[in-house]
Design brief:
Length: about 425
């Protein structure tokens, strides 16, 4: 084959251009320009990684929602002040947090997620709420954006097949319901139970777990059940009907702070004083039990996996002392935490820290792989007997809980019912 001198020159130029293009592609292939490293995902550079949090910062659930931001900022603020976190790829990065208020409105949370993508966050997480997190779950999957350590007990978020870019943080609703059901079933006395639950997956999950645990227990009888809608402004009618059953135990699977307080008050007004079970997210000693005058009841129970700073037994605990200091200095939260979500998001920060340390590439794929490979991690603020385990499909990062009984100031682990 004969090739002219001019043609050879043209081919040479094309070849050089191709080599240059490949070289430039390789340079763009990582946050640090390392050859052979995977292309960096949006929201991560050699020095920073950006996380987005959409959560209620206004409205009826603003209290716990504000805590989700404060705890995360407390943890990462302290880490940033120390110089940052050393990632698995050898780079040390600081964590930047962008926050978005969804007011517990699913449409708003979807809009916030779309804004996050536009803002270039690496991952979304830690935000509170089942309907709000569900609102953009499918969008997160389609765009391959991690939606992780979300504060909902909905098991859908921990099903790896259905939710490949998701992971829940807190125990699923069924786990909490089962824990209380087992405690009551182990009692030597006879008990009548009344149930009031939120008419959605939240309430149904708690009730299903409770009923599963008491199945076959001859000393437990469910004598009344009522539901309410998350948009309701009063549950006085339901409380009145359930009080008429004479139940000595009230299983109140409720997520709305004002309604929980009103329920505690209403039952007292009509002279009904059963033992109460409250979900972990509506069991705050200062924000709910104190205004609800919970000391009037023979026992108020909840479940927990985190240390309660209000409890005298943890007043000098090293984890709690550091947490409260970080919360004030970096979380812009000066008071004693009114909701457990402050502690939960601090634990979430520590869990993300573990994943960052084992990310070998600056990519979302590498992050998810590292996040799903954490086992038996005793994060700061976790109660003895609980830990972080992200390796079990169908379970959130934290699945173990301890039943707690209110002691007038905080909670102590309940060894038995009564």
């Amino acid at each position: 084959m004969n090739v002219s001198k001019g043609t050879r020159g043209l081919l040479g130029a094309v070849a050089m251009a191709s080599v240059l293009a490949l070289s430039l592609t390789g340079c763009r292939g990582s946050a640090g320009g390392g050859e052979g490293t995977a292309a960096a995902s949006p929201g991560i550079t050699d020095t920073t990684i950006t996380l987005g949090i959409t959560t209620p910062l206004s409205g009826a659930t603003a209290g716990p929602g504000t805590c989700t931001v404060a705890g995360a900022k407390a943890y990462f603020g302290a880490k940033n002040a120390e110089g940052g976190i050393k990632f698995g790829d050898g780079k040390t990065r600081k964590v930047e947090i962008k926050t978005y208020d969804d007011a517990y409105d699913p449409q708003k949370s979807l809009s916030n997620f779309q804004q996050m993508v536009s803002d270039g966050v690496f991952a979304e997480g830690i935000g509170l709420g089942t309907p709000t997190n569900r609102a953009f779950r499918e969008a997160a999957i389609s765009q391959k954006v991690p939606q992780v350590l979300v504060m909902t007990g909905d098991p859908l978020f921990s099903d790896q097949k259905q939710s490949p870019w998701q992971l829940g943080l807190v125990p699923i609703y069924q786990n909490e319901g089962q824990a209380f059901g087992k405690l009551v079933a182990s009692s030597s006395g006879q008990h009548k139970v009344a149930i009031l639950s939120q008419n959605d997956d939240y309430g149904k999950g708690y009730v299903a777990g409770f009923k599963d645990a008491i199945k076959g227990a001859s000393n437990i009888t469910v004598v009344g059940e009522q539901t309410y809608e998350a948009t309701d402004t009063s549950v006085d009618a339901q409380i009145t009907q359930l009080a008429a059953t004479g139940a000595d135990i009230f299983f109140n699977a409720m997520s709305i702070t004002p309604l929980t307080i009103a329920s505690l008050q209403k039952a007292q007004q009509i002279g009904w004083k059963p033992s109460w079970f409250l979900p972990s997210n509506t069991s705050s000693p200062t924000a709910i039990l104190a205004p609800g005058k919970a000391e009037a009841y023979p026992g108020v129970y909840s479940v927990s996996f985190s240390k309660a700073p209000q409890s005298p037994e943890f007043a000098k605990d090293d984890d709690v002392v550091k947490f409260l200091s970080d919360l004030k200095q970096y979380g812009n939260y000066q008071d004693m935490p009114a909701f457990p979500h402050c502690m939960w998001s601090y634990i979430a920060g520590a869990t993300l820290d573990q994943a960052f340390q084992h990310m070998t590439e600056p990519t979302r794929d590498s992050f998810m792989k590292a996040l799903r490979n954490i086992k038996s991690y005793a994060a700061p603020l976790m109660l003895q007997g609980t830990d972080v385990d992200t390796t079990v499909d169908g379970q959130p990062a934290i699945s173990k809980v301890l039943v707690q009984k209110y002691n007038g100031k905080g909670y102590a682990t309940a060894k038995s019912f009564g």
